[in-house]
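Query form — protein DUF1989 domain-containing protein

QUESTION: What is the three-dimensional structure of this chain?
INPUT:
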Amino acid sequence: MGEHANQYRDNKILWSEVLPGGHHWSGRIQKGTVLQFKSLGANANVSFFCVNAADQLERYNMPDSLKGQHTAFLSTGHALYSDLGRVMASIIHDDQGWNDAFCGASRPEYIKKQFGSCTFQDARNEMYQSGLDGLLVEMAKFSLAQKDLSATVNLFSKVTPNDCGELSYIHADRTNQVIELRFEMDCLVFLSAAPHALDNSDRYQPADVNMQLFKALPLNEHDICRDSCPQNQRAYANNARYYALESNV
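ANSWER: The structure tokens for DUF1989 domain-containing protein are given below.
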């Protein structure tokens, strides 16, 4: 499963597990590691949110991430900024080429309207769960609540606007696509593999996603994310100051 070699990480798999479609996950991902996501089916979507593990008030900030990099989506070479101007994670590989940063996680009312109702009492772990509910379950494990959740990155999902600004979900077969995030600080990561908020599929059948963790290699003289724009270089400099004491101990 580690066949997608990347010049920015080691090839040794530190751990691997499958996030079933519709399910959710959380954990601490350390600075200097790469978390790989591989879609195992056509309708993959992973709603991603993270906070600084050492200071939960520092969180992924969608407006700054897009504004600072002059983009409307996130892909290879882009960084995920915190609300303090530091880089939380960076995208070092992306087969999808466009990851939605606008729409957020799907809500329960959308899931019920689009797919009907299938509760835990009816179907146990095969219930129809929204992205929002899944993320909130995981965040509660770390004493975080809905007030702490801002925008998410929807990995594997592309949305485009029309001339009126209305967003549409782009259906495509995402089987075996790979996305790799390199973590630039210790993060608490929250994931949901529920359908995208604009997915108009007839059936609730989100794809499973395989996750693997690798060790990141030291940054080269030229780095695909740090050097993709001047604002990223400044954000990485903020990280260097933040971790300066640690690096000199």
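ADDITIONAL NOTE: The two ends are 37 Å apart (CA to CA).
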